[in-house]
Amino acid sequence: MDDYDKQNKHNNLIFENYILTVKDAASFLKFSTKTIYKMVDSGELPYKKTSKGIRFLLPELIRWMKGE
Questions:
Q1: Residue 32: beta bridge partners?
Q2: Which of 11, 36, 46, 67 could form an SS bridge with 60, CB 3.0 to 4.6 Å?
Q3: What is the largest CA-CA distance in the chain?
Q4: What is the DSSP string of 6-68?
C-alpha cells in the first residue's frame, strides 16, 4: 500500500465516523435546530443517542438526503 492509498483509507475512516451535533446537523441540512428536534422525535432522521445528547453520523445524513 503506497502513501496515497494509506491517506485515502485514513480519510475514508474519518468521513465514515464524522459526528455532528444537532446544531451541526441543522447547519449542514439548512434546517433550524427546532426542525431537527421535530424530525428526531418523529423518527424521520437517523440519529444516535449518547450520554452527551443527540448525535448524527455524516454518512447517514447524506444517505438520508439521497433517499437511500
A1: none
A2: 46
A3: 46
A4: HHHHHHHHHHHT-EE-HHHHHHHHT--HHHHHHHHHHT-S--EEETTEEEEEHHHHHHHHHT-
DSSP conformation class of 2? -
- At position 59, the amino acid (one-letter code) is P
Q: Which whole-number Å values give the CA distances from 1 to 18, 23, 24, 32, in the listed order?
A: 24, 38, 35, 44
As given in the structure block, the three cell numbers for residue 23 are 446544531
- Whole-angstrom Cα distance, residue 50 to residue 15? 19
pLDDT number for residue 2: 66
Q: How far apart are CA 38 and CA 52, in angstroms?
A: 19
